[in-house]
Amino acid sequence: MSTHINAPEGAIAEAVLLPGDPLRAKFIAENFLEDAKCYNEVRGMYGFTGTYNGKRVSVQGTGMGQPSLSIYVNELFQFYGVQKAIRVGTAGGCSEDIKIRDTLLAMSACTDSSLQSQRFGLLHYAPTADYSLLKAADIAAEKLGIAHSVGTCVSSDMFYDENENWKLWAKFGAKAIEMETAELYTLAAKFKRKALSILTISDHLMTGEATSAQERQTTFTNMMKIALEAITA
Q1: What gap in Å lies between CA 149 and CA 152, rounded to an integer?
Q2: Three-class SS of residue 215?
Q3: Cβ atoms of residues 85 and 18 within 8 Å
């Protein structure tokens, strides 16, 4: 039984976009989906279902961090039959070859989260995107003429990184730091579903550049377009 998503059976599509910000979910529904209807408002975590290119698509807010995303994705996979999920979120750049407002397709996700150690103990799992979704997103971005990168992100539990761990991640090739992708990929593997994260670089740890909260909420549309094309391909 779902306790955080109050949606009747059949209200959620098999293909779901997952923004962290519930207001971004509302923005996507209002600007990209046809006949969008709200199916969830519990805890202000909006969920909508509509159509895109004639195919049913839902968009569900997940909140910030892996524990919050884990709740919603567990319920979507277990109780609502979701088969494909694409996170559309923001990340902090930590590589010289990625710039603010760029789009990153996250091929894999490192993490410092204790969620993984609780599952695997001394073993080290490698959370990885579904290749078919990654390929579809890469093709969609090319067709839309949207410049993008493909690479590794880091899902950190600590937003204010006093230890500057991002420098070590960057040394080993990570392009950006965010807070959710590793858990999404791990749950997708567990439940044998398809998942991908498409990220917009909202700030940069090396240069100190940053975008406004309003810009992050309503104007990062490139990743939304790519995600919708990929998940309906």
Answers
A1: 10
A2: helix
A3: yes
Q: Which residues are catalytic?
A: 203
Mean pLDDT along residues 100-129: 96
When the pLDDT of each residue in the chain is averaged and rounded to a whole number, the result is 95
Coarse DSSP helix, strand, coil percentages of the chain, rounded to the nearest 5 percent: 35, 30, 35
Residue 188 pairs in a beta bridge with: none
pLDDT at 152: 98
First-residue to last-residue Cα distance in the chain = 31
| Token pair listed for 173 | 């090739």
Task: Could you list the beta-strand ranges (E) of the chain.
Answer: 15-18, 34-40, 47-52, 55-60, 84-93, 103-111, 148-155, 176-178, 194-204
Q: What is the pLDDT of residue 34?
A: 98
Dihedral sign from CA coordinates of 138, 205, 224, 222 = negative
The runs of H, that is alpha helices, within the chain are: 22-32, 66-79, 114-120, 131-144, 166-171, 181-191, 213-218, 221-231
**Lookup result for tokens 């550049």:** 209
Amino acid of residue 32: F
Contacts made by residues 119-125, CB under 8 angstroms, sequence distance 24+: 119/186, 125/186
Evaluate the CA torsion angle 108, 112, 118, 121 in order and state its sign. Answer: positive
Residue 149 phi/psi, 5° resolution?
Answer: -120, 155
Span 166-175, average pLDDT: 97
CA separation for the pair 226, 222 (Å, rounded): 6
Q: Which of 105, 101, 109 is nearest to 157 (CA)?
A: 109
